[in-house]
Fold each of these.
Amino acid sequence: AVPVNGSFPANQSSYLNFLIPRSLHTNQTGGIHHRVAHFGAHYYSGNWKDVFMAHPIYYPENYSDFCLFPDEFPSNHSHHPHVPHPHGEWDHDPFFLLVDRGECSYVTKVRNAQRHGAAGVIIADDNKNADHHLPVVKDDGSGHDISIPAMMVSYNDAKKIKDALLPPDDKEHHHFERSVVAEMAWHWPQHEHAVFVSLWHSPVDLKRSEFLSNFSKIALKIHEEDEAKGDKETGGRMHFHAHYSILNGLSMQCKGNAEKEGEPCFDLCTNNGRYCAVGHHSVSGKEVVVESLRRMCVEKHYPGKPWWEYVQHFTHNCLEPKDDEYFANPDCLKDAFSHAGIDQKTIEECMKDSGDVNTDSDNNMLQNEVVAIEEYGILETPYVLVDERPLPRFASLDAKSVMEMFCFSFAPGKAPHVCHACALCGDPVACVSRDPMQCLESDNKHEIPDDSSDSGDNPDKKKKKKKSHHFWRWFFIFSFIAGAGGYVFYKRRMGEGGDGLGSYTLTDAFMSDSA
């Protein structure tokens, strides 16, 4: 990797363009319109330093979907001249592979290209009318072994690449005209105004709700700062959007099988089995769907500070004490609305207007969540996107991890003050809770000791090291270099047990003790 040559918009962290032929090159900032995969290099590596790659492109025209590894191609298949044979002259030369969308998952295509020796993959969209709205290049749940980057381009841009690879009539320039060289580049994003944070979760999951409750303290502090600066009308510097783990009842055969006791989906779903959720202990899946819809309406009519205050109060008073007794308790809900300054009638009307939960019809807000889960390929929850980037796989979902990723997505000097005061603190929640905000030495008690200062003879230090092995810890060190952007480094801390929140798969949905 060499220093980035790409020209990045302030809110974009990736770049795609063409060096050869010049007819494919664009001078627009950000290069060719593209969308980066949610798996593979640069997303899950946690390494978002400025890097640049430039290699020739090949297109396996006869098996353009690349759903089979070349060794698995039918025996009568002769390798197209535009794709290097796995045992041919291109074995040791880096190259990008252009493949077509469809027939198998994105991960399968990129994995086959990786096994074939590709340094990166460009996926051609198959929608001729979607030049400006490319789909999410989602993970299928197995993308952890992908170590090369992948980007999608529009159908029309891909066609230009394919046309440039075709042999020309002029034999004198035959070899040169078939050469297409692309450049990919990445850097840490440099937002000037705001960063988007999205979270998929379930309201009944206490550990994830604890994360929300803790992160709400950070979010509320950012909102306070925005209000003081008059940035409230623009949505502030954190644009947060909550998504919910709503299961598609139609695909689970729950429609018409969820209303009566003894039916397979009883008490799991609303709208006659259309929208379902995982329950917990004595909280039914149906009650989880209703609370999810309630929170959608709160976010719609009372975004920002009121939503965070509602969630924080609900977690502490309606979920933590005894969820089976207070989760759907009308008095507890009334207190949460009152605490957050929310008009309960407005929320109830919103829930009815969206399609209600007791009718045998679609609910548009719940349906949007089902569509979003499919669009983004959400296979497990919780799932976080910061500026359209997932947390690295090794990172715990905690307030510190998300805060660091959020704060380091701003251009130098543009991040909220809370980032400068608390982002590098061992316990940023404790830091932002103080007035004025400050990080104390006690907040960093779980940090990995510096080996250079350890004499090896101090038993207390050895005990601390052993104790620290029970925690997952990762952090970024963000250095501002005048005019040069940010560099991000990380440490990974592993150990048995861990303090992360882990993953919640759809398999767990049918192992839950709903009652």
Amino acid sequence: MDGAFSFSSISGDVVACDQQYTRLKNFILDAIEPFRQELYLLLYPVFVHVYLQLLSNGHKTPAHKFYSHHFKLFLESHKPMLEVLKQLYSKEDVIKNRDVTKLRQSKYRVKLSEDALQYILQYLKTEDCVLIIQIINHHIHLQVKSDSDPELDLQDERRLEDKVVSTPGTPKNKVVTNEVTLGSLRQCIRRVRDGPPCLSSICLYTFLDSTQSLSSTCITPDRSLICGGFENSVIKLWSLTPKKLVPEPTDVRVDRINLSGDYLEDIQDKMSTVAPSECVALRGHSGSIYGTCFTPDSKQLLSCSEDKTIRLWNLGTCSNVCMYRGHNYPVWGVDLSILGNYFGSCSHDRTAKLWSLDRTFPLRTFIGHTSDVDVIKFHPNSNYVATGSSDKSVRLWSIQDAKCVRLMQGHRSSILSLAFSPDGQCLASAGEDRRIKIWDLSSGNLLKELKGHTDTVYSLDFNKDSTVLASGGLDCAIRVWDIRNATSSNNNNISDVHTSTELLGTFPTKTTSVQHLQYTKHNLLMAAGAIQ
């Protein structure tokens, strides 16, 4: 196609020649079938002119190395010309040979469809292919096929069997399927499924200038609110949307004590309108807030505290609607089932408990750990809960009978974070030993151990495809792992020899410790933490 590229002189960088051609060859050979067959015709002329250019610039040894690396690809179709090229050793040989001179003086014509042309142009624009572009400018004529171009369809009989001839009355918008198109579709699906996972965009929320230390944080499933639990027993809500928070009026407030002398003031409060605010404080606990969790509908919030209680908050009125008592010591964590009707809690009293939102007493008590139960997490099917403890073990419990069905040991210190894969097959655990362990729930065996963190890991979460795991903690970095297969260790972000090859990328947050990670259904990774 004339005028598709800007013209410039051809350079003879030895290393760039081999690298750029190898990338082009791999790109074309890995292309999907409709484009691969057309673009394959480009490889031979580019190969010939790269080889001749190296010889013309006096690079005899690199030229013959380049020839030996790539000539087998064209041995069947261009064997006579390859024999001629093999006998060239210098610039003088290139000039004296008539066949080579004729080849260099004329342009090699390649016919491409419009889609194939745009496909290769997009590659040349995004990759470092200056030499390839120069060769196409000088020695190759790209011609776009048109519907009116007469073509002789000379193909093998086996190929003709796969052809589907449409009748003249077939409308243009009708989808005609055959084995070729279905094979291409299967190839695309297989490449997406088996290829490396796509890294997510990350949105990090940092708590600044907090007078009391942040002890817990959480984000609503609809990404409209973020909450922070602090050591001064206050929970604060912030809006993540332009809309400010306006609590609905309520008759009962648990954050204040009403006296008889406050009657007139109470009437005035009810009659006055509440001004919109970016932040709302929830008060009711009498100790540090150690855990928070939003309900799936983003309308309520659960919190647990050092005061041994769990509270349920209505986010519409920003008021406490229920208090749950049952633990004898501080409650370290809380988690809701995906259905939103049950929740679990874990405590310093070495037990975990199962609750229902409409009951103020526990329905089940899970007993078995020999030290603090630091974290609890519901299985995606809501029939099991997992607990991590300071006794360095992870246990999987059945909700039906409160019995331990899996015991997973291997950590060297307290376990502070758990995460189930959405497909329910794996469980990730991490904590103070800086290691992340992936467990197979069907057998209870260890699948992988991920190394890379340099401090305590506080948060884990899987993406919705159960292929990528994100982790964060006190080392002020978010790490993303491919839990399916080990990836190449030549990643620019991976410089530590003690880092697992499953690491896809490391994203430093400078001075923000990561206390919460949450993947959205659109593969956005949301993170939150406080400046150390």
Amino acid sequence: MASSSSSEEENAEQVRISLIPAKGSNAYEDESLHVPSDPIAVPSDIRRKGLSALVNHLLGRIVPGDDGKEEESDEEDDAERLPAIPFDFLLNGRLLRTGVEIGARRLGLSLEKAVELQYFPSHPAPTDDGESESAPDWITSMCHSRYDDSLVQSVQGRRGIVDGLLCAGGNDGVLTVYDTGESLLIDGGHHQNSTGKEKKSVSFRQADSIKAHSGPLKCMDSLSVSDSAKQMSTTLIASGSTDQTLVSHIFSCSHQNAEEDSSSKERLALHAVYSGGHSATISSVALSCNNNQQQQQHNTKSTLLASGDWNGMLCLWDTGFSVNNTDADKENEHLSQEEEAWNKNAVVTKKRRTTAGSTTTSNTVREIEPILTFGAHSNNLSGICWGHSSTNNVSNTLITCSWDHSIKSWDVESQNIKLTLNGSKVIACMGRSHEADLVATGHPDCTVRLWDMRTQGTGQQVGGGGDSGTMGSISDSSLLPSHKAWVTSVQWSPNNPFLLASSSHDGTVKVWDIRSSLPLHTTRAHPKGSKALCMAYDKRAIYSGGSDCIVKRFKC
């Protein structure tokens, strides 16, 4: 009788689990990371670290201890065993952050049969990867545009890693562009400053800068066009300011010879001035390629610019920036120099003789009026982005958010509202997933919230499968408050549809997996007392700018 009672007590302390590699993860694609899926008994209170050690044991890898270090072992073949891999686990689509039994009961899962756990390698914490030289003023806005993969691959063999352009705007109205290639290091390592102390080397190079506005630069967006045959890239950069001006600049760069002076091959110049639309601070901008009937008859694609201001006004502009240089070359054969340069994204340079006999140069800049203008919100239009398109065609949807607590989805052609969701807090910033109209917003109450802006019949699903949730909804509880101050920026990972990052006035950057209510990692991006004001997220790094006047880079 006592033996039976002891046996029941032992069984009550264990649960059966089945380990399955998560679809779409490295564990699923790499057969060397597969383990037997047969049910096994484990302690009912086993958590993520214990499960990770179990998977590593089944894979024949070195098993980490509770402190994350390798466990001591007398086995002679330890030197031949592969290092441990930290794993994360999904229970019914949510990251496991409790014991298995508690997690299963909270989700209403039966323990009569084996609990299925999907495993995948954990996302590493961001690590410090350098910083820029100190700027004259606060870094208030930032964006990153990636070069075409064909250009990246053609240049990579000779010049190291060249992947895109980082644009940063300052409180002094200065626009600065950085080349984010990893091989571009100042002095090839550490060097000393004027005080004789060791100074961190800059892991990305400042390519050029220009005085873009007379007031603080509030928002920006960029779009790069690459020509792999000529190994050239051209980037359109749109920016808005508190001085109520909206402008775009062109940055042209040749990637042909690394040995040549790069400054002679790069140029940042004013492209266009946008007037007649706004009469308040420009608070948000978004660029997108357009493929309407007017552009189709010229066989080119032109970039549309959407902008919002402090009064809630929304404007749409045709920038004239072509994303198809091949077609533009054919059309430009019969055009004048000025027209040709405009269509091919160049800035015309004219020589002008002064009264003193000297020669100066000046740029011809277009002045553009809005295609449409209308009141989208009753207060500051704090964020704007183009909707997701499941085809190669550009989305006809704009998503906007505002300090009036609402977020809206618009049909651009008809100017009709497709969806309106009302929250309870001021929305300070916004970012959209790269795979669907799933939006994350940041708020002054230290919270990041998720909004499902998908409308019926779109068939958009985050991650390419599974339950997409209720379309047209807001989740106040999916991500718990974690920042200690105003959330200033939210950006989604371009690699993983479940990951996003947020920055805050508390000086930190947090990385989130939307399948968990708690952040995966928290990184001190700026010194205590300094604010993180803006952020950019590319395929290899997270960039943060703040009140310490420095752009920080974190490898991820």
